[in-house]
């Protein structure tokens, strides 16, 4: 395990020093040589999607079989519809064989990397805080929103919606749309209308099955009202075109401004070269619609022939964070880019954010697709991440409960399993800090109406609440 081990122990040292998390490692006697180059290749090529400790393979229900030849097949040729890239050009047959052994061995060992509870107080640069697990026993929580009475609504990607009320999780709420859950899709975001107390509308995004009965799906936005634990008056207000059999890049995080607009992204659906740069379909775009699904009269492309009128900006890969800046009222977005090209963007109407013509990243299999990082007529990100952190969920810290974090951006990191705090000066990123190292794959982060930060982590799915203590 040569370099992998070294990496792990330096991480161990950092986390222990930081006093955040203690680790147990029962794994000391492993044969250091049996997997050849696999640990190194894994860290470089696979960890960003499957977890640095192979989390996604531990206790796995294998989709394509649990035998070595099954793994070799997936690694060699990929699973293109699901977003698993082929490695036949990058790794030799022997390296792929070692990789399959490496993954199967770890999968069998189970999870040796279970963080045990750390000290009560997390010390960070500006704010000290306590972390409470307030909801447990979830799988992949995706969206969360707060009802005026303090109840929390939580979507699970598998297609369930729960109400967490007075310390207990409800039975799944009934009356949901017909959600198909495959690849990265399923039941996704949830948000309340800004005037919820008056009109009762709750908005959700989900993967909608194509009417042709094939396994094809599309990102849809629906709204409904909640009566007890049942949804009523359910209606779709947006269905992205075209449907696709691909399982990846659905986008879909929701944000409302104070003018009755709903913003959300739709990812490129794994069709990089077809979708993001044309205005004739909905994929690879940020959209702006009215709260009833109508098109705002001043959307940037309403007068352009053949353009989809809901488009607000284009040239996006997979938007996984949308949030309104608390001071400027502008829309900010974070997106999963290619390897080394995740971005934070400030979204302006009608502009082109460049994917895949310009990018700071390369393909996940190590090949390149563009030499350009800048071009006239295409916007630069406010910030990009190399290595990719897989930013998931994004929110501004509103209110003043966390002294020193006011108006900072928070982003979850799926791949590196922490919460990213971003300080801004105007529209510039001036400082970042890693919070909650190794907390788990962070799927979402939200600030409640009463100003507390909530973090959703997955597999096992939990909702955490951060209490400032200084
Ligand atoms: C860009 C993200 C990405 C990268 C990089 C990536 N994978 Fe995957 N991989 C996926 C996705 C998505 C799936 C589909 C199943 C899922 O969602 O976990 C998958 C599936 C697989 C499967 C099949 C699992 C099963 O249940 O049958 C194997 C094996 C696998 N990957 C191995 C690897 C290895 C080894 C590497 C590095 C050499 C790698 N992957 C890199 C995204 C990725």
Chemical compounds bound to the protein: heme C
Order of helices and strands: HHHHEEEEEEEHEEEEEEEEEEEEEEEEEE
Report strand order across the widest sheet. Answer: 1-2-25-24-23
| CATH architecture verdict of the largest domain | 6 Propeller
Helix content: 10-25%
Mean pLDDT value: 89
Features:
470 residues, mainly beta, Cytochrome Bc1 Complex, Chain D, domain 2, 4-stranded antiparallel β-sheet, binds heme C
What can you tell me about this protein's structure?
With 470 residues, the chain is mostly beta strands. It folds into two domains: 2-109, Cytochrome c-like domain (Cytochrome Bc1 Complex, Chain D, domain 2, Orthogonal Bundle); 121-468, TolB, C-terminal domain (Neuraminidase), CATH 2.120.10.30. It contains five helices and 25 strands. The protein has helices spanning 2-18, 38-50, 68-77, 93-109, 196-199, and strands at 121-123, 128-138, 141-146, 152-156, 160-165, 168-169, 187-192, 202-209, 217-227, 230-239, 254-256, 261-266, 285-290, 311-314, 318-324, 331-336, 342-347, 383-385, 391-396, 409-413, 418-425, 428-435, 441-447, 453-458, 461-468. Strands 1-2-25-24-23 form a five-stranded antiparallel sheet, with no helix packed on it. A hairpin with a 3-residue loop joins β4 and β5. α2 crosses α4 (93-109). The longest helix has 17 residues, at 2-18. It is globular, with a radius of gyration of 22 Å. The model is unreliable at 1-32 and 111-119 (pLDDT under 50). It binds heme C (HEC). Heme C binds next to α2 and α3.
């Amino acid at each position: 395990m040569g370099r992998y081990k070294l990496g792990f122990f330096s991480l161990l040292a950092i986390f222990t020093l930081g006093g955040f998390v203690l680790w147990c490692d029962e794994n000391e006697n492993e044969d250091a040589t049996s997997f050849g180059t696999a640990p190194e290749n894994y860290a470089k090529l696979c960890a960003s999607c499957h977890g640095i400790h192979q989390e996604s393979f531990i206790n796995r229900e294998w989709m394509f079989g649990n035998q070595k030849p099954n793994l070799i097949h997936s690694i060699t040729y990929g699973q293109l519809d699901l977003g698993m890239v082929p490695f036949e050009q990058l790794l030799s047959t022997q390296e792929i064989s070692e990789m399959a052994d490496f993954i199967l061995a770890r999968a069998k060992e189970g999870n040796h990397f279970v963080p045990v509870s750390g000290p009560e107080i997390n010390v960070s640069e500006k704010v000290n805080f306590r972390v409470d697990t307030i909801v447990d026993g979830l799988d992949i929580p995706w969206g969360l929103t707060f009802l005026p009475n303090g109840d929390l609504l939580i979507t699970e990607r598998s297609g369930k919606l729960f109400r967490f009320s007075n310390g207990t999780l409800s039975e799944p709420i009934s009356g949901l749309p017909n959600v198909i859950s495959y690849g990265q899709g399923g039941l996704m975001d949830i948000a309340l209308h800004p005037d919820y107390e008056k009109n009762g509308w709750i908005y959700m995004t989900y993967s909608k099955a194509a009417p042709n009965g094939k396994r094809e799906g599309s990102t849809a936005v629906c709204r409904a009202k909640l009566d007890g634990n049942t949804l009523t008056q359910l209606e779709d207000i947006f269905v992205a075109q075209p449907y696709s059999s691909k399982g990846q890049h659905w986008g879909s995080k929701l944000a409302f401004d104070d003018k009755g607009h709903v913003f959300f992204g739709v990812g490129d659906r794994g069709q990089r070269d077809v979708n993001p740069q044309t205005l004739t379909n909905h994929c690879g775009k940020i959209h702006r619609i009215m709260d009833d699904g109508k098109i705002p009269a001043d959307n940037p492309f309403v007068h352009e022939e053949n353009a989809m009128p809901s488009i607000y900006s284009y040239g996006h890969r997979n938007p996984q964070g949308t949030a309104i800046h608390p001071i400027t009222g502008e829309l900010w977005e974070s997106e999963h880019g290619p390897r080394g090209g995740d971005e934070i963007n400030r979204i302006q109407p009608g502009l082109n954010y460049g994917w895949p013509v310009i990018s700071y990243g390369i393909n996940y299999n190590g090949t390149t697709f563009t030499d350009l990082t800048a071009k006239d007529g295409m916007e630069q990100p406010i910030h990009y991440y190399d290595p990719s952190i897989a930013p998931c969920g994004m929110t501004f810290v509103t209110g003043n409960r966390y002294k020193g974090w006011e108006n900072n951006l928070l982003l979850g990191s799926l791949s590196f399993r922490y919460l990213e705090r971003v300080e801004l000066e105007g529209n510039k990123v001036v400082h970042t800090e890693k919070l909650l190292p190794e907390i788990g794959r962070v799927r979402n982060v939200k600030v409640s109406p009463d100003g507390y930060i909530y973090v959703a982590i997955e597999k096992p799915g939990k909702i955490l609440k951060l209490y400032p203590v200084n």
